[in-house]
Amino acid sequence: MKHRSILTLLILVLLSACGPAPSPTPVPDALFVDPRTDLGPISPYLYGTNYGPMHAVALDVMPLVEEAGFKALRFPGGAWTDALDMQSFQIDMLMTFAKQVDAMPTISVRLLGGKPETAAELVRYTNLEKNYGVTYWSIGNEPNIYTQLGQADYDYTIDNLNKDWRSIALAMKEADPTIKLMGPELSQWNDSYETTPKDSAGRDWMTEFLKVNGDLVDVVTVHRYPMYSPNNPVTVQALRENTRKWIGEVEYLRGLIKETTGRDLPIAITEVNSDPSSAMMQEVSPDSFYNAIWYADVLGQMMNADVFMINQWVLSQRTTGLGLLQGSTVRPTFYVFPLYKNFGSQQVYAASGVTDVDIFAAKREDGTLTLMVINLSDEEKRIPLQVKGEKLAEAEVWLLDVTHNAENLGTQTFSTDGIVTLPPQS
Fold first, then answer.
1. pTM score > 0.90 for this model?
2. CA gap 21, 388 in Å, rounded
3. What letters, b where the CB count within 10 A reaches 16 and e where it falls short, cover 311-321?
4. 3 state SS of 162
5. Burial 382-402 (b: 16+ CB within 10 A, else e)
6. Which parts of the chain have pLDDT scores under 70?
């Protein structure tokens, strides 16, 4: 299969201060940045993935993983969570791996068939005996589809979830009151009451969970694979149009949390990819180049939505297109992470007045301005780049395409007309 050439630019520009700036507005047919409009810190945990006993990393690509910029690891990931009880040696292996890649681990304990005392013992071993200091813990994986997938041989409803989740949560908090609990890890979140998961009695899983357990949960978690369509092939256009839908899904969840609990709680999307099926080697399957462009844009949209944590599914997997790695093969989406590793930590205002082109901006601690520019379209774009109060002279440019794997191309000079050129699907 032939892929279109893809370019993702991370432009690093050293700028000087130039006085206060009024509230900015998008500029038609241009990219606009106001580095003095501070939008707050960016959560480092946006740059996360899933990792577990079934997702080992080959030794020859381990140096790439160590330098990729992963900041959160969800363990053990997926249905394995509810298949059997985790062992202490697996916690030890996780902590060694997390230290190697400099990422914060989060741990999921068993819900279906799990026992409060077993979960409490895992917490005790991890944080009291071994002093690993794991803060974020979740309970179970996608309980809303236990019955559908045959994991439960009975009708597992929201009543079961609320009862089981709460008993395990209380035991874990008794073992270590300092931990923070994440949940309920529902599958296929969406943007309205009509489209979010319901149990067999038609009750909304998230609403009923928050009514009963909203006092215990610290981070509200869901999963999202927007392109799952067994009877219709995924297209580039469908993936392109999807990126703008994520903010609405987060806003709906945030409003539901506030309405139901009276609190503003952080949101994490702990499984994310385009298609949860085993699709691979297709134009827009998860192992494709366009999936990388889509995911880079989704991360920017989630930054705009102030999401706390994102865990891409999955770090390594041999039998589907979902893994960032397939054995020693590195898939294109992997290289989104080293690009964002160079991104700043304090978001500033950026807006695009160009269809199918997005821009996200941030500052580093040293004041360096960083821009992530993404062209989702099939056409080359030549676009004016305006940075309020600044005259751009040169920038450090990073390139991701079919022949450049997030490589630093060095310092380049801006054209006098301020035009930047973005290749198709870049």
1. yes
2. 8
3. bbbbbbbeebb
4. helix
5. ebbbbbbbbebeebbbbbbbe
6. 1-25, 230
